[in-house]
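request received
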Amino acid sequence: MSLENIRDDEVDIVIGALHSDLTTFMNEWKPMFCRFHLIIVKDPDLKEELRIPDGFNLNVYTKSDIDQVVGSSTSILFSGYSCRYFGYLVSQKRYIISMDDDCIPARDNKGFLVDAIAQHISNLSTPATPFFFNTLYDPFREGADFVRGYPFSLRSGVQCALSCGLWLNLADYDAPTQALKPEQRNSLYVDAVMTVPAAAMLPISGINVAFNREVLGPALIPALRLAGEGKLRWETMEDIWCGMCVKFVCDHLGLGVKTGLPYVWRNDRGNAIESLKKEWEGVKLMEEVVPFFQSVRLPASAATAEDCIVELAKVVKERLGAVDPVFTRAAGAMLDWVRLWKSVGSGASSLRA
Amino acid sequence: MEPATATAAAAPPVPALKDELDIVIPTIRNLDFLEMWRPFFQPYHLIIVQDGDPTRTIKVPEGFDYELYNRNDINRILGPKASCISFKDSACRCFGYMVSKKKYIYTIDDDCFVAKDPAGKPINALEQHIKNLLSASTPFFFNTLYDPFREGADFVRGYPFSLREGVPTAVSHGLWLNIPDYDAPTQLVKPLERNTRYVDAVLTIPKGTLFPMCGMNLAFDRELIGPAMYFGLMGDGQPIGRYDDMWAGWCTKVICDHLGLGVKTGLPYIFHSKASNPFVNLKKEYKGIFWQEEIIPFFQQAVLPKDCTTVQKCYIELAKQVKEKLSKVDPYFDKLADAMVTWIEAWDELNSSGATAPNGKA
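response:
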């Protein structure tokens, strides 16, 4: 495993637009975004026209594009936060960096603006080390290394396929937590990137992520839709379900997942207590999901992300579908996604970015 | 980068756990470093384990309450079982764990000083370790905002509610600014590298994941995990050195995972002032670098039977497996497995009046 050299033209920045006016968002990110191609996917439920400032190299996709490419051939709904997955689908680049449209650049402990794009690229270009924990965190960072006692055979690491960033100000809490502590804001800047160990499960937030589309694309699935899903992150679980599947697939395929830097600054939005009134079924679902992933195993023959999702969908339907129909639908959506990926995502369609 | 000097102002008004925690310090040189730690350490009882020549007198700075053991004391107290305690290696510190009567242990090397946080404030490492040990760990699900019990943090969205209570914390592993804990090859290649990055986090190491445990700045709950903290056979007459804490860490983590106990790493930082000679280190570590390639898979695959419900039972079982599976790597492991059993026998003998109850569930 050597260092990857990621060129600017290998990266797509994908933004799911849940707000029509992206002017501030785009201008705040301009210094970091301007070198890259962007894909903006408008939430099909959004009625107003998108307002996007000039000066970017981008493609915008709206409901009509989604309908044209995907049509009614699928059970997947690309609405709300799931609209960004359409961007992942039609991208032609090797790497994707994706961010919610209510986030702006954060400042680090020294007051400098954090280039989240550069940090994600750095995370994806250096190896991950999932088989043994390094107590000085990412050994490939400037000024760090493997510590005494770290086996040499594990020092070359594995390919990092997913980079999970964090959030200052409004952290990604669930509604009950934020409702209990309405004034709590995350002001702790933890200057670390680390690999999440193999077999460890974690909640992967979709707010600030980057991944290797080439190896992992089919595994980022818009599959789990809550009955009461809304337009605020604490009214969704789609990314959490996606993240559990992705981590599981990475563990199976021997790929790495990093977490930590970069931070983004997440704007205050919504009222957690209001969201509590909606049924938080997602919280109940997680209780079933954890023992499921602890015990499920994929056959060794599942050698690609696509294979893994197909196999996983089968088991999800069998075992979790019996517990709650939302999982049966999720399993169906996972298979639909792989089908879509094969026909559109691998370059067959003319409507590519 | 400099260690902190004016620590007096930073001492807490009421030292936490002052009658329940012993500070174990191995030394072969002197204890001058204690002056700097005085405001933080003075309320606590010290156990000094004097390595090397027992005829030397190690002066303990005035005002500290301590007990000191040299090699003659170790031989006298343990008799033939003293063979399990290393000589001419800081691994001898584990004798201090054995003779302690307290619930908690903090161990620190004599070349570790008080570090400063990014605001320039002296760090009370002991206080942070105590916080770590007294709050729960979360080994079954990784929290992306690190320690959820920290002021200003919490569990993130998607973290299962049934796992939010956590489990008891058995070990708190601290880190080092300035001279990082590198092995000899890395030291030789990067002699000038200093750790200047203050990572403001404590996190639980997930179940099933091993890590290199450094004994320079380490605290643990002796009642929960003490017997697993055997630092092995190192130093004089042994083919290996600088793997004492590593060995204890791998055994400890496997047993903690089995018993449902937590291991934390991260804060607090201390300031590590002395870089040991990398050529000397290389000679000590040399075999370990090869052996660890076999040792790691051994620990990763080690399974403890359900009826191992105490730390001692787990440890004896591990010793059995070491003998079975690692002896073929080198006869040293055969000796080490025997020493592991001797250690448990000695531990139980010295700690029999307060017989340890089964800890945790298998």
